[in-house]
C-alpha cells in the first residue's frame, strides 16, 4: 500500500487545537481562591477544573469540555465573554480568544470605557479647541476642558457619557445641536455600520433598545438600515450666552486602541473662534437660558 504521508492539518483544525491549548493554559492559571471558591481536596493541579469553569461561566460541562478538546462546535460571543470573565483574561487575551474561536470581536474594543494617560495628555494639549476620545458606540472616553465647556451636560458626573443618548434624549428645550436634521441621520448610519461588527455584544444591543424606547426619532432612523462612515461635515451648536458656534470635525485614528478616535472640533470661522475663546474665559456661563 502506498504511503501518502501524514494527513495535512487544515487551518480550522489548527485553530481549534490552539484554542484548546490556550483555554487549558488559562484555566491552569486561575486558582479557586481567585474566584472565591474553597480549594477543596485531592486537586491534581492548582487551577480550576473544567466543571468549575463551566459552572462559573453558566454553560454546560460537556459543552465546555468539547470546546477545550478542540471539537468543531459553534460558539457565540456571549459565551466567549463569560468564559473570558471566568478565566480573568486581559483585553489582549480576550481578543486572542475571539480570533482562535473564529468569532467576530464583539466586546474587546468597547468593553472598557477608558483611555491611556498618554491619550488624555494629547487631549489636554489641545487647549484651544474642544477634543474628545470616542469609540464606535459614541461613548465619551475622555475629553479636554474646551470640550467640557461646549458639552457641559455630556461631561457632567451623572451623565451617561454617550453622545447618541445625549442628542436623542435631551429635552427639546435644551437641545443645542442646530443642524440635527442632517447630522443625526449620518451619526445613526455610522452607528449602524459599526454595529455590524458587534451583533452579539449585549452592551450594544441594550443601548440600541434603550435609545429606541426613549426616542421615536432614533427608532425611525434606526429602522432605515442606512449605513455610513462617521460624519465630517460642519456642525453647529447653540449656546445661550454667545449664540451659534460652527465647527469642522477632524477624526484621528488611535492604532493602539481599535475603534477609538480622537475627535477635534475646530472653529469653522472667525466668529466661532472668538465665541469659543469667550466660552473658555467664562466656563460657568449657562449653556441654556432656563433650568428644570
Automatic annotation (TrEMBL):
UniProt xrefs under SMART domains: HTH_XRE
Protein name: Transcriptional regulator
Gene Ontology molecular-function annotations: DNA binding
Gene3D superfamilies: 3.30.450.180, lambda repressor-like DNA-binding domains (1.10.260.40)
InterPro entries: Cro/C1-type_HTH (IPR001387), Lambda_DNA-bd_dom_sf (IPR010982), MLTR_LBD (IPR041413)
One Pfam family this sequence matches: MLTR_LBD
Classification lineage: Bacteria, Bacillati, Actinomycetota, Actinomycetes, Mycobacteriales
Xref: SUPFAM superfamilies: lambda repressor-like DNA-binding domains
Residue ranges of domain HTH cro/C1-type in the record: 22-94
